[in-house]
Specification:
The structure is a single chain. By secondary structure, the protein is of the alpha+beta class. The protein has one domain: 60s Ribosomal Protein L30, Chain: A, CATH 3.30.1330.200. The chain has 2 helices and 10 strands. The strands form 2 sheets. It has a 5-stranded mixed sheet, with no helix packed on it. Strands 2-5-4-6-7 form a 5-stranded mixed sheet.
């Protein structure tokens, strides 16, 4: 099984960078794949396609409660850090688009008002406040997902993870389709 949609990749080998919980990664121009595994956590991918710069974060909770805690485990810090690293890499804020992933309700039984739903709502809210359009989204549900972002092209592949409680579930891998502009 291909981990990244082969039609979206260059002909050469790609370096893979795993982005863990509370991490942020940005890469511009190089043949790199950024990947992360998400359950109730959310990852926001920001892309500046004209400059071929992209990055993502991986946050666990929407907001920090301790103002002295600057960990990117929290959405407010993770988004600020991602934006800072994108602009430091040369991205123009006016050319940014976003893609949102994760926020699954992986606890059984699913609950309303879950951490995943709060993370999704936070990501949508801050992107709206920053006037960054959301071009693709694969959020919610009850299954974890691994995402693969190729910053140079902006392509993202999502693989839903088979759960141990659902032996009939299969792994789905697909390139994410963008919303029509």
């Amino acid at each position: 099984m291909s981990l990244v949609d082969p039609d979206q990749l260059s002909s050469g080998p790609l370096a893979v960078t795993d982005v863990g919980p509370g991490d942020v990664a940005v890469n511009g121009g190089a043949d790199t794949v950024l990947t992360t595994l998400l359950g109730s956590c959310v990852s926001v991918c920001l892309l500046d396609r004209p400059r071929r710069i992209g990055g993502l974060n991986h946050f666990l909770l929407p907001r920090r409660h301790d103002p002295s805690d600057h960990s990117a485990r929290y959405g407010d810090t993770a988004m600020a850090r991602l934006m800072a690293e994108m602009t430091r890499a040369g991205a123009e804020e006016s050319d940014l688009i976003a893609k949102i992933f994760g926020g699954a309700d992986i606890l059984k039984p699913p609950r309303s008002g879950s951490i995943g739903q709060a993370n999704i709502a936070f990501a949508r809210q801050i992107l709206n406040e920053w006037n960054i359009p959301i071009h693709a989204e694969d959020t919610g549900g009850t299954r974890a997902r691994r995402i693969f972002l190729v910053p140079r092209t902006g392509s993202v592949s999502v693989h839903l993870i088979r759960t141990t409680t659902d032996p009939h579930a299969s792994v789905r891998g697909a390139a994410v389709r963008e919303r029509p502009s």
